[in-house]
Every structure is written in C-alpha cells, then in structure tokens.
Design goal:
The complex is a heterodimer of chains A (546) and B (607). Chain A has 546 residues and is α/β, with parallel strands linked by helices. Helices cover 61% and strands 8% of the residues of chain A. In chain A, the strands form two sheets. Chain A has a five-stranded parallel sheet with strand order 6-7-8-3-9, sandwiched between helices. In chain A, strands 2-1-4-5 form a four-stranded antiparallel sheet, covered by helices on one side. Chain B folds into three domains: 323 residues, Up-down Bundle (ABC transporter transmembrane region fold), CATH 1.20.1560.10; 180 residues, 3-Layer(aba) Sandwich (Rossmann fold), CATH 3.40.50; 73 residues, P-loop containing nucleotide triphosphate hydrolases (Rossmann fold, 3-Layer(aba) Sandwich). Classes of the chains: A alpha/beta (546), B alpha/beta (607). Chains A and B meet through α1, α2, α4, α6 and α7 of A and α2, α3, α4, α6 and α7 of B.
C-alpha cells in the first residue's frame, strides 16, 4: 500500500521532470547547463523506482512465503487429525502434492497478482487526479476508458468462461491420454498395438489444437480489448492535446506532461491481466486446502477421562467409508475385557480394519456404539484414549516424532512418548529384535532399508506394545513373518493380555485364532463368506474341532 | 559431471526440444514478425505522439499535423491487433510443435518398452513427464518469441535514432543491448544459483511432508503430531529463507531494468541537448529521442521474464532428452531391438519353446538374475514355476517374451527370440501380468485391444468367459462405459478380469502368466486363477505363481536364479523344500476359511 502510493508519486514526478526538460530545451532554448540538474534528478527517480521495485519484490515474496507456510501447516495438521480415513490415508500422494507444489502455485497470487492489484488501483487514480488538475478533456477521456477495461475483461471473461473451462478439461484430457498411453505401453506392446498409437497421438493432438484455437480466438479477445482500449485512449489523448496545442488552447508543457503520464495509467492494469490466470490456479489450490481445513473431524471427542482397566464394548457397530456407501459390514457386537484376546476374522475388504479405525476414533460408526467402561467413545478425551492404545496398522510405517531422515531404533519405538530405555528394550526383546542386534542407538535409513519386511513388522509391533498400553489393536501382526517369528509375536500378544491389556487382533492365520479367547467374524452385510474351491492338487487336512 | 559439461548438456537438450516445438518454422517466423510489428507499434505510438505535440507547439498549420495524427491512431490500433494475431499464430505453431514432441517422446519410450520404461514411468515421474511435455509450450511462447521481438525492436529503434542523431542512437543501442543480452544473463544466473539452494530445501520439505502424510495415523495415535509438524516447520523455514534470498536477487534484476531505463532516457537527453543548442538537430526531435527509450524499455520488460521461463524449461528439456537418449541406446545395442518395421498384426501358432542354459542380467545389476536355466515347453503343455520372490521367475518370463537380452539360446518355434524381437514373440505368446494396463476408454475398446478386428459378439463372449459380463451389464452405459484413468472406476479384481478377457480375445496358443493376481487379496486371487485355468485350457502355458495351481503337467522350483527342483506335485512334496512349505501355508489358509464358514456374522464366539 505504502509502496503503491510512493510508486504513484514517483511516476508522476518523473513525467513532470521529463516533459519539463523537453519543453525547456525545445521551446525555451535552455542549454545542457540549465537542464542538467533536472536530468540528474530524473535519473535519481529511476534509481529510486528500481530500489522500490526491489524491496517490493522481496516484501511480496516474504509475505507470500508466510501465507504459504501458514496454509500448509493448517491443512497438514488438520489432515493428520482426520486420520487414515481423511485425505492423508485415502490419497497420500495427492495430499503431498497439494501441500508442496500446490501451495507454491500461490506465489503467483500473493507475490505477483495481489501487489499488482494494489498498484492497479492506486496508480491510475493518482494519474487521473493529476491529469484532472491540468486538462479537463484529457481527464475525461482517461476517466471514461479506464473503467471500461475491467468491465470489458469481466464481460468477455464471463462469455468465454464456460468454453474455456471445457477447454482446460480437454487439455488435461489430452495430457492424460498421452500419459495413459505411455503407462500402458507394455500392454500395447504385448498385443502389438504400440507403434500404431503414435499416429493416434498425432491425430488427437491435431484435433485438440483446432478446438483449442477456436476457443483461444475468443479468449485472447479480452486482452485485445485491453490493449486496444489502452493504446487508443493514449492516442486519443495525444491527438486531442496536439491539435488543441496547435490552436493555442493548451500550454505546451501541460500537453507533453499529459502525454508522458497517460500510458502510466494503463500499464498496471495490463500487468494485472497478465498475472490473473496464474493467480487463479493458485487460488484453486488454496480452495482445496481450505476444504480440508474445514472438514469436520469424524469423531470430535469429549472431555471425559478414560476409565482404568475398562472393557471395550462394541454394540451393533456398522462402519462405512464415507465415499463408499455400499462398503458396510454387517452389525458387529462384542465385549473385549481386560486380560483377554479377541480375534477378528473375515474376508478381506469385509471391514476388519475399518472397525479398528472406528475404535481409534478415526471413523465414526454409521450405526451402533463403542463404549469404554460405560462412557461412549465420542465423549472420551480422544488424545488420552489414543495414548492408551498400542496400535499396529496394516503395512505399518516406521517413523520417529521429528521426521529424522535416519532415526534411531529407540526413536522409532518411542515416537515422542518419552519411554524409558528399559521399556523399549523389553518390547524389542519380546518381538525377538534385540537378539538380532537391534541396539537402541542403531540408526535406520529413512526408507526402512536395512531391515527385512519381517523385521519392520516386528519393530512396529514393539512400538505398539512398548510402554504397556491398556489396549492393543493389532492388524494382522503376523503378516510376512516366518514360523519362528510368528511364535514369538504370538507369545508377546499373550503376555500383553496376561498383564491385563484389552487385546483386539485382526487374524488371518489360524495360529492367532488358536490363542484367542473369543472370535468375531466381520463380514459384509447379508453375505455368506464366499469360499473359493481349493486347488485339487492340494489335499486338505480335516477340520479342527471347535 | 562438471559445470561446463552440465551446461553443454542442457544446451543440447534445449536445442533438441526447440527443434521439436518449432517444427512449424514458417508459422514461428510469422508470429515473430507479427510480434515485432506489435512491439514496434507500441514504441512508434509514443514517438509519433511526442513529435506531434512538439511540432504542434511550434504552431504550424493544423494540416501539417494530420498525417502524424493518423499515424498515432494507426499505431494504437496496430499494437493491439498485431499482438492478437501474434498470439493466435504463435499458439497454433506451439501446439503443432507440442504434438511433434509428444510423438517423439512416445516413440522413444516405445522403443525402450518395457525394459527401460520403468525408469521413466514410476508414479511421480510419470506425472512429471506429463508436466515436462506441457512446459515445452513455454519455450516458443514465453522464451523465444518475446526475446526475439525485443531484440529486433531494440535494434530497429536504435537504428532509427542513429539516423536522427548518431551519438544518441549509439547511446541507446548500448543500453538496449545490455537490456536484451546482459540483463537476462544476470537474471538467469540468479535463478540458476538460487535453484541450487532451493531445490534441496524443497526436496527436504517434500520428503518430510510425504513421511508425515504416510505416517499420519501412527503419529496421531502416538500423540506425536505436534513434534512432527514442528520438525516440518523447521524445514519449511529453511525453504522460505532460500526463496526469500532468490526474491531479493530477482528484485535486484527488476532494479537493474529500471536503472537501465533511467540511464537510457537521461543518457540520450544528455547527448542530444547540446546538439540541439548547437543547431545540429531540430528541437522538435528531442521529444522523439527522449520518449522512444521510455517506450522501448517497457517492451523490454518481457526479457527477464523470458530468462526465468528459460530456466524452467531447461529442467524439462534435460529430463525429456534423457528419454530420447535411452531410446537411442536401443540402436546402440544395449537393449533388444524390435523387428524393424515389424508387422504388428497376425497370430502365429505355438509349436515349441526351448530355453537352453540361459543366463540373463537386468541392466545395471551386478549379479545374473538367471543362471543356466533350461526349460522345454511343447504345444498344450502347462508348467508351473514357483519360488520365493527374487528367485528369477519374472526374469525368465521377460527373457521368453524377448524383453531382456540373454546368453544361451531361447528358441520359439525353432527361431532365436533375440533375433526376431519381442513384437514377433507377442504374435505367438500372450502375456498376462499384474501390470496389465486398463486404458481410460470404454470397456469395449479395452478388450478389443486383444484383437482389433473382433466382432462385438466375440468381445461379449470374452467378457463372459472372464466372468466380467455381469459387471459390465450392471454399468450405466454397459460395454460403452468409460472405466476412468488407470481403471479408477474398477476394483483390482475387475481390472484383472478385464485383462483376462483381453487375453482370451487375443487367442494365443501359448501363454506366459506372470503372477497375474499377485496384488489381489486371497479370495479374489484364487477365484481369478481358476477362471484363467479353466478358460485357457488347451493352450501351452508357463504359469508363474506364488500359489499352488491345479492341473499342471510339471512344477519347477527356482531359487537364486537357478532351477533347484523339477517334477510332479508328489515328487516336490517328497523333497520338502520351499514348494512343500507353500503347500502347507495354503492349507492353513484353507483352514482359516473353514473357521470363518462356521462362524455367525458379527457376534463373538467364545472358545
């Protein structure tokens, strides 16, 4: 704002000095000695405007960076709170792209468009006011044409918007078509269709070009209108003051001053137009982030304290993914008591993992209740509740609390909880990692390389059982483990139950079911579990009695 | 690679990119000419206006001013109209060039498929490939055309002023030359240097974001959300600092432009005023000489923007060039060539396959992935290949399909695979893997890929056999429904059944099934494998699977690139190796299904 006012002042002063020097020399017969001072000041003004542009650029980028950071933090923080059913779980790649590259698109809005918009308001008004004080007719021409520019742009913009939107969709379609073909190349090759597709790219590109050009003809009209209005008004002003000057109706110095000043009224408007499209793209990203920030939490949580050693009761619970209404499982009812192991079994996609999500408060049951002791989950202090849970998700990520690229094993098990080293050591021993040389201060690579899949799985399990949580929610803890490790992990699960934890475990192998106190089949509503026929070459042992 | 090599490399990449996007040379020249007219009109508009007013001040007869008045209006109109035409012609040329580029990139990728392809088409890289191709539009539209116009207008304006007053013209020429050549060079250097600091900072931030997003639920569950977002904020601040430094430097660039303009305006005035006093030039021309630099430098502001755009295009150009270079390696013999101009259509019946002591290695790998592998496959024979991951099963499939160079011999119908090329192999052997791509088009088109001249009835029958017909009928537009990018509107099982239908339509008498259901859950996977087994009965098949498959003639067990056992089910069970272990696992899974079948849904059963 301040920069805008100073810029306007300098622009007017510069025009005054420049026209003054020319008038003095051409009509007053001034020599270089007479005007050298003014020319020196003129150069000074250009230098000042340069410095101003420099500081404006720096200030704009600084404020843009701050806005970007705030938006990124808020969006990411809320996305984390929304949990695995939110954007972080459903499309992590998309979310990452949005809060990194997407946010960067905001630069063009904050650092280019907004500052230019300020100039586009202040400078024309200041120029107009100055011209008004010098010559009424010129001021009238500028005052009439200036507002026409935004009006024309809006009108043409409205007229073309629908067609342009459609066009951008075609553009992304075309881009998508190309990427679709490229990623399908191996398939095309297998069926001998790879070479012929090059012609298809050619043909589609050509078709796209002709439709795009027909739309661009109209889109570019808005900038044509802008350019024509700006240059024709300057021409009108120039010719009108010129002819009046010849008839001695206006003073030479005023005439030249107005001529130099008039284009400056239109320049900022033209630049705003240039930045508008890029800015719109950035705003789209901002919009999507605000949508994330405004998404309500699935389970808001309450303030009631967590009861100690309480059973967890699941009563007629149905969980559905918000975007897949048909995904619901049949109602599930059970009570998991401290000191017992509850095994959840069922076909994949049947809702076992979603049920764990509901227990963690990441997903609200669309029917039924989860109660801890006699308190409904939605009334519990969610942070306290989650902190009392040792959770092992499917495909567990290994991470420390500070996103260290090479975290220590201790930090990965602790995740910022501040556990005693002995507790961590005990957990690692229980899953059999310590004896395999997993010293607490050993550093891991960020991508988890250096650990086998089975070791990663057990490290994640150690994280879940460390610190003796009241509740253990384990999603297929023996996945990707061999026989010996499996026995070890089952023993650790039983030990947790013996010391009084509520253990709920998703089981996909019989060994875990064998040690559980109760079994719950979680399956889609109204379905018999579809059991595929076994391969004939494999003879099956008889069923175990239950 | 040292700095000068990098620069040379990027320069040649830029040249290659330019050759593609400027394939319509005549249109580009026309656009440049129109753009020159537009920019020149802008400069002439202010120059003529200045002359008009300075001359008017001498109170001549009004008639002498009318020509100038007409010229002023003409230049005003010309500026807008010429700019409009330039943009139309320029965009048309650029879009044509973009198509040329797309085709070239596609051809290069096609020639390295599938072996080299994975290098360029993994997730994020694929998206970047699309963005890189689109960025190429900027090269003509935002870099070359503005720059060329600016240069010509600067030259023309200077020449005009030289004609008026040589000293003033030379002053203007020097400063305008600095604006067209030195100024963008400074800005380009700043951007390149800044990117050197920004790119790693941005990379670190993106890595943290990905880490935090991937582990979102875990971090929240363990109460570590705050420390994690704080750690992220630290990296964000580092990036902000780097970006602010770049902005400061770019600000210097903007300041330099403004100062150059000031020097030009005041410089020509300083040179001209004494000449006016000396009577060497009519006073009226001072207005023109003083105002021309003002207008000229407004036109030249596009130059630093072009320099910034050039740096952005450079990155894309280098990445696209890498693809072309990989394509050229094919001819250099590092990858298998396709049969030159190979006929793509036509089916050739399968007779026999003989793999004799084959060794093969993936490009860039240190160890052989296949060691002394022998395999015989007669017409109608079915062989199951099992082994732990990394044992060389899929490498064997790649060698048979002609995707990977090998030592030893692979004879398909008596002809060496490396000699006939993968396109030829594809006419005899059908391949089904978990990577079968579903294209963003209709179900019908996706299946038709198997055999282009198939009738609609044949396509429906393939869908029936793949057990997908019912699903297709349930779609709103039936067989004409689009399935979305990468089959987004299908489940994993439906996608794979579509691939099966496509394979069935192709009617190959030999098949390589490379773990086609590896990525699917157990039940779906068993179901689809049975469909495949039933519907491809009678065709010779190499079946690579992690599950035991029924009805095969022989079973081969592989480990660490070698065949370690070969025989019937009973023979391999007796050996009690990896195969036997898998069979036991599968029985356990079966027991689990039995357990489930006996349980009521949704209620606890105590044990």
């Amino acid at each position: 704002m301040v920069i805008g006012v100073i810029t306007a002042g300098l622009v007017i002063w510069q025009a005054r000095l420049l026209s003054g020097v020319i008038v003095d020399v051409t009509s007053e017969g001034a020599t270089w000695a007479n005007v050298s001072g003014a020319v020196g000041i003129l150069l000074g003004i250009f230098v000042l405007r340069g410095l101003l542009a420099w500081s404006a650029e720096a200030a704009a980028v600084r404020s843009s960076a701050r806005a970007k950071r705030e938006l990124r933090e808020a969006a990411l923080d809320h996305a984390l709170a929304l949990g695995p059913q939110g954007p972080a779980g459903r499309d992590p790649a998309d979310l990452s792209a949005l809060v990194t590259r997407g946010v960067d698109a905001l630069d063009s809005y904050f650092a280019r468009y907004l500052p230019q918009l300020v100039l586009a308001v202040i400078v024309p008004i200041a120029v107009l006011a100055t011209v008004l004080g010098q010559d009424l007719l010129s001021a009238f021409i500028i005052a009439v044409t200036l507002p026409l520019i935004p009006i024309f742009m809006i009108l043409i913009g409205l007229y073309t918007k629908r067609r342009v939107d459609r066009q951008w969709r075609t553009l992304s379609l075309l881009s998508g078509h190309f990427l679709d073909l490229v990623s399908g190349l191996p398939t095309l090759k297998i069926f001998g269709r790879a070479k012929t597709q090059a012609e298809a790219i050619d043909a589609i590109g050509d078709r796209y070009r002709s439709t795009t050009m027909s739309v661009l003809k109209i889109t570019f009209l808005s900038s044509l209108a802008l350019e024509l209005l700006a240059s024709l008004s300057v021409a009108l002003v120039a010719v009108s003051v010129g002819l009046r000057l010849a008839e001695d109706q206006i003073v030479y110095s005023v005439a030249l001053f107005i001529l130099v000043l008039a284009p400056e009224a239109y320049l900022p408007l033209r630049l705003v137009g240039q930045h508008f499209h890029a800015a719109a793209e950035g705003l789209g990203a901002a919009d999507r982030m605000l949508t994330i920030i405004e998404t309500p939490l699935p389970v808001a949580g309450g303030t009631r304290a967590l009861p100690q050693a309480a059973p967890i009761t699941v009563e007629g619970v149905v969980v559905r993914y918000p975007d897949r209404p048909e995904s619901g499982s049949a109602p599930v009812t059970f009570t998991a008591r401290p000191g017992t192991v509850t095994a959840l079994v069922g076909p994949s996609g049947g809702g076992k993992s979603s049920l764990l999500s509901a227990l963690l408060g990441y997903l609200a049951p669309s029917d039924g209740h989860v109660t801890v002791g006699d308190i409904d989950l939605s009334e519990l202090d969610l942070d306290q509740w989650r902190n009392s849970i040792g959770w092992l998700p499917q495909h567990p990520p290994i991470v420390d609390a500070h996103l260290d690229p090479e975290p220590t094993i201790y930090a990965c098990v602790d995740v910022g909880r501040g556990l005693a080293e002995d507790d961590v050591r005990a957990a690692l021993t229980a899953v059999g990692l310590l004896e395999e040389g997993a010293a607490l201060d050993r550093r891991l690579a960020a991508d988890g390389s250096g650990l086998s899949i089975g070791q990663r799985q057990r490290l994640a399990l150690a994280r879940a059982i460390a610190g003796r949580p009241q509740v253990l929610l384990l999603d297929e803890p023996t996945a990707s483990l061999d026989g010996d490790s499996e026995a070890r992990v089952i023993e650790a699960v039983q030990a947790a139950a013996r010391r009084g934890a509520v253990v709920i475990v998703v089981a996909h192998r019989p060994a875990l079911v064998d040690v559980s106190d109760q079994v719950v089949l979680v399956a889609p509503a109204a379905s018999q579990v579809a059991v595929p026929q076994p391969a004939a070459a494999v003879s099956l042992p008889g069923q175990r009695g239950w | 690679m040292n700095v000068s090599e990098t620069t040379t490399h990027s320069a040649s990449a830029m040249r290659a990119l330019w050759n593609d996007v400027s394939s319509e040379r005549r249109e580009i020249y026309l656009a440049a000419f129109l753009g020159f007219l537009a920019s020149a009109s802008a400069v002439a508009l202010l120059g003529t206006s200045g002359w008009l007013i300075a001359r008017a001040a001498e109170m001549p007869p009004v008639l002498t001013l009318t020509v100038a008045a007409v010229m002023v209006r003409t230049f005003a109109l010309g500026r807008g109209l010429m700019r409009y035409l330039e943009r139309l012609v320029g965009h048309d040329a650029a879009f044509r060039g973009l198509t040329t580029l797309r085709v070239r990139v596609y051809r290069s990728l096609e020639s390295i498929t599938p072996l080299g392809l994975s290098r360029f088409t993994r997730g994020d890289l694929l998206a970047r490939l699309g963005a890189d191709v689109d960025t190429a539009l900027d090269l003509p539209l935002r870099v070359v055309l503005p720059w060329v116009q600016a240069g010509i207008v600067a030259l023309a304006t200077s020449a005009f002023v030289v004609w008026l007053l040589p000293q003033a013209g030379i002053t203007l020429a020097i400063l305008a030359g600095a604006a067209v050549l030195v100024w963008p060079w400074i800005v380009g250097r700043i951007v390149r240097r800044a990117e050197g600091a920004i790119a790693p900072a941005r990379g670190a931030l993106i890595e943290s974001v990905i880490a935090i997003v991937d582990a979102a639920a875990v971090l929240t569950a363990y109460g570590a959300r705050r420390p994690a977002t704080r750690a992220l904020a630290v990296r964000d601040a580092q990036l902000t600092r780097a970006e602010t430094r770049e902005a400061g430097a770019l600000g210097v660039g903007a300041a330099v432009g403004m100062i150059l303009q000031g020097l030009a305006v005041t410089g020509v005035i300083a040179v001209t005023v004494p000449r006016v006093a000396a009577g060497e030039i009519a006073p009226v021309w001072l207005a023109v000489i003083a105002l021309l630099p003002l207008a000229l430098f407004d036109v030249l502001t596009t130059v630093p923007t072009a320099a910034i755009a050039r740096e952005r295009v450079r990155g894309s150009a280098v990445r696209l060039e890498a693809i072309t270079e990989a394509g050229e390696q094919v001819t250099a013999g590092q990858l298998l060539p396709d049969e030159a101009g190979g006929a793509e259509d036509g089916i050739e019946p399968f007779d026999s396959l003989q793999v004799n002591s084959v060794r093969a290695r993936w490009p860039g790998a240190v160890d052989d992935a296949l060691i002394d592998v022998d395999l015989r496959l007669a017409a109608g024979e079915r062989v199951l290949i099992m082994g732990p991951s990394g044992s060389g099963k899929s490498t064997l499939a790649a060698v048979i399909m002609g995707f990977l160079p090998y030592q030893g011999s692979v004879l398909l119908n008596g002809r060496e695979v490396s000699a006939v090329g993968s396109d030829h192999v594809a006419r005899t052997i059908g391949l089904l893997s978990q990577h079968a791509h579903v294209f963003d088009t209709s179900v019908e088109e996706n299946v038709r890929l198997g055999r282009v001249d198939a009738s609609l009835d044949e396509i429906w029958s393939a869908l029936e056999r793949a057990q997908l017909a019912e699903w297709v009928r349930s779609l709103p537009e039936g067989i004409e429904s689009r399935v979305g990018a990468f089959g987004a509107r299908m489940s994993g099982g439906e996608r794979q059944r579509l691939a099966v239908a496509r394979l069935l339509l192709a009617q190959r008498s030999a098949l390589v099934l490379d773990e086609p259901t590896e990525h699917l859950d157990r039940e779906t996977s068993l179901d689809i494998e049975q469909t495949i087994a039933r519907e491809t009965h009678g065709a010779a098949a190499v079946i690579i699977s992690h599950q035991v498959v029924e009805g095969v003639d022989r079973i081969i067990e592989m480990r660490a690139g070698r065949i370690v056992a070969e025989g019937s089910h009973e023979e391999l069970m007796a050996l009690d190796g990896w195969y036997a272990q898998q069979v036991r696992r599968q029985r356990e899974g079966q027991r689990m299904l039995d357990v489930m079948q006996q349980l009521p849904v949704g209620v606890a059963v105590a044990r």
